[in-house]
Amino acid sequence: MTAGSMTDLIQQPTTAASRPAEEGPVDHVLEVTGLAVHYGKFTAVRDITLDLPRNRITALIGPSGCGKSTVLRAMNRMNDLVPNARVEGQILFNGEDIYAPDVDAGEVRRRVGMVFQKPNPFPKSIYDNVAYGPRLNDYKGDMDELVERSLREAFLWDEVKSKLDQSGLALSGGQQQRLCIARAIAVDPEVVLMDEPCSALDPIATARIEDLMIEMADRFTIVIVTHNMQQAARVSHRTAFFSIDMDDETKDRTGGLVEYDTSDVIFSRPNDPRTEAYVSGRFG
To answer: How confident is the model over 229-234, as a mean pLDDT?
Structure first.
């Protein structure tokens, strides 16, 4: 694929919102250095180093099995919940090592929230879904106001304001995912991690989530794992491309970071031929 045709990938119209330009001074809310994640004897990813800019959208792309979701889960210590998982290297959140012995993993997950691939509302009312985290954290403010604000920020308030006492499970798939986003931001995180948040949604719901992500970047830092390269090109400021290395002797497959740059560079003039091959559809 030529550079021009890769640029066309970015320009395909799908949503009303366009990807915002990366501009102005940038500081880094998350700094990942020499990250490796092991599950027992298996090394899922190794030697991952990248800095995540504050109030920007960063996309992680690459073929299945390259470790994108593993890296994402390392950013808020979700891998702690996996038996035999072991993390090496360093991840700094606002300059503090989130894996330091005195750091509370629960507090890390509050400040670095997660939205999963499949919408997973609690079997509770819409109101109680959003209020769950603040109640758990002993929120002292006006809960009604917080629930409304969170639902508004998730572009969901106008659709559910008359049925807050109804089950979140009764909503459509796209509405459920926006409810999960409202639930995540209700505890006022700084970072929102999204693991393929649109893979189970139809194109209309996907467009609404993409618009929402762009709006959310004014308040939150967003990191999204996606297999949809058009989506990454549309919404992200920066993109990291991961690939898989195979040990010729053991045949073990380990994920690694190939290239990390602005999304314009990754999708129009990548520096590594492996990146160009992937974004052009010639492998992966």
So the answer is: 93
pLDDT tens-digit series, residues 86-114: 999 999 999 999 999 999 999 999 999 99
User: Is the Cα dihedral 114, 179, 134, 126 positive or negative?
Assistant: negative
Domains delineated in the chain: 3-279 (3.40.50.300)
- CA pair distance 123, 75, nearest whole angstrom: 27
237, two tokens: 């400021």
How far is residue 190's CA from residue 28's CA, in Å, rounded to a whole number? 12
Which tokens sit at 12?
């395909």
8 Å CB contact between 172 and 11: no
SS3 (DSSP) at 32: strand
Confidence of residue 246 (pLDDT cuts 50, 70, 90): confident
Strand ranges of the sheet holding 57-61, from the earlier edge strand across to the other edge:
96-97, 85-93, 28-39, 42-53, 253-262, 238-246, 57-61, 221-225, 191-195, 112-115
On whether the pTM is more than 0.90, the answer is: no
